[in-house]
Description:
With 236 residues, the chain is of the alpha/beta class.
Amino acid sequence: xxxxxxxxxxKAVVLLSGGLDSTxxxxxxxxxxxxxxxxxxxxxxNHKIELESAKRVAAKLEVKQHAIVKVDLRSFGGSxxxxxxxxxKHRTAEAIGHGVPIxxxxxxxxxxxxxxxxxxxxxxxxxxxxxxxxxxYSGYPDCRPEFIEAFEKxxxxxxxxxxxxxxxxxxxxxxxAMTKKQIxxxxxRLGVDYSQTVSCYDPNETGAACGACDACLxxxxxxxxxxxxxxxxxxx
Length: 236
């Protein structure tokens, strides 16, 4: 499925958490003919087991390089993902789609994209991919199209390649207008093995998902609507 299509040496930095969305984006970038430089973060998240998933995905999809960067956002806390606050469970679809939940990590995508931009400039790559979604998502402000547009403008103002190199940085968000069902269907079409992915905010030490947090509920909804069983491991 993933033939070598790198003859034109197109490079892209792709943010890879190891979850459903980011894994699908890696597959999409590869399909579009990019050499993928996958970027993951050890940012003090409680569900650090996702990094093991990111390693598996990077190997399975044969990325050109996979970097894991340590950024200690736990120093600030402010999120159920970087503190001892409990992760919300069993929320309704209406509740998930309303307001900013406590699983939001302050400025996380801004930080991650800034570091992705730094690596992209070093690689002389003008393309950055990320798996943000504005339909079936948990209400994060840094997943909205307005944020992506603003950061892309910043990227072209803040870099040497954007101001002197005559190049334009492009942020690719291929999932932003997709439902989870469409994301699952796209990944399956591209041959993604979703059993290798971890989306859960509260997995156990082996990576088995809780099945009840917002991320699990949205993921399960997507597989259910696609008419396919989720191959990930669940505790319940």
